[in-house]
Predict the structure.
Amino acid sequence: MSVLKLSQQLCIQKKEKQIYYSMGRKSLYLLILGVLVAYYAYTPLPHNLEEPWKMMWLNTYLKTFSHLATFVELLGLNHYMDTLRYFMSPNETPPTSDENVTVTETTFNDIPVRVYVPKRKSEALRRSVFYIHGGGWCLGSAALFECDLQSRQTADRLDAVVISVNYRLAPMYHFPVQFEDVYNALRWFLRKNILEKYGVNPERIGVSGDSAGGNLAAAVVQQLLDDQDVKIKLKIQSLIYPALQTSDVDTPSYQENSHFPILPKSLMVRFWSEYFTTDRSLEKAMYSNQHIPLESSHVLKLVNWSSLLPERFKKGYVYKNPAYGSSELARKYPGFLDVRAAPLLADDNKLRGLPPTYVITCQYDVLRDDGLMYVTRLQNAGVQVTHNHIEDGFHGVFSLRTFEISHRVMDQYISWLSENL
Ligand SMILES: *[C@@H]1O[C@H](CO)[C@@H](O)[C@H](O)[C@H]1NC(C)=O
Ligand SMILES: *[C@@H]1O[C@H](CO)[C@@H](O)[C@H](O)[C@H]1NC(C)=O
């Protein structure tokens, strides 16, 4: 074999080797990518969930943003919630009127609100929905596309004036700022001259909210019962998968759905603790359900799922009396035991005065049992309650219009309001 041939042969071998190696690297990369995609997209989903692929994509998308926000926070650059809010901001829409509804922005007692008034002529005064958006007291806005669309459709379909309130958010502001902003805006609205200005019938006003907005709705409606200055009585309240208590984050629904997309337990606990403080020791204690001090143990019977949940939701779960936490947390952040943050802590006397109530709960939601327990407590107190439990529903279903089920839930909500408000 000539030297030339030999070197050619070697050269070919080398190339093959290179190709072989580069193929090896490529499949390694592909494998890593596959594992990452699987990790991100994989979620065990229940069989009765419609459109599971949409849920997988949404979950992948949310997880990516959440991980980025966690990373940015680890680097010490930005608070987790601020990063999430930044990611959501492109989804905000200006207050634009359409052919059926006039949309404007103003302030009620210095609190910004978006107002939706139907354009069609009305002989009579209109009914009105005072709406409080969700987002864990940290995120969300009346301007977000989904919230704006929902308010617009409510105004149009019910021929109602919708007020959508923009309260201040954590981590910049903590409890009771969110509560007070909503309450002050509502009180401002419930005055004769303001209702006249918007053509609202004072006997047909309701308060409504989803998630953290459902929490604020339940809280302000309770507070209003004792307010001597407000003469107008609300006709209804509507609570869409509301958060109603901080005392037990180990209810069957928290256990069952702790990793369910959109609102895993870790995020809900973070929302709760951020409502009261940015000090993460509360979050830690809360996550392990060790934040209620012994001297506050009396609150636990008000949120005792063992006695308040219908049998079918208890399944095989065994009620454990909680391990008590340090008194120091409750002293530093008394908000988490305040009825204005945890409406389930109201006593029966208070509950008796509440207006007819609509409650939506979803099977796949850590907050399901909060809603269920409130339904039981309201019924025990003699309040007229319509409970709509969505068997194939999940947290966020009211706003996520890309899902078919969302339209079904919205239709049920509108039809209840149209009959009861
Ligand atoms: C306005 O109302 C009409 C009649 O109900 C409806 O067909 C139309 O889609 C509505 N427009 C918007 C923007 O919602
Ligand atoms: C909760 O209720 C169960 C009975 O349903 C009872 O055994 C338990 O002591 C109660 N715990 C608290 C803290 O109220």
User: Anything to note?
Assistant: The chain has one domain: 46-421.
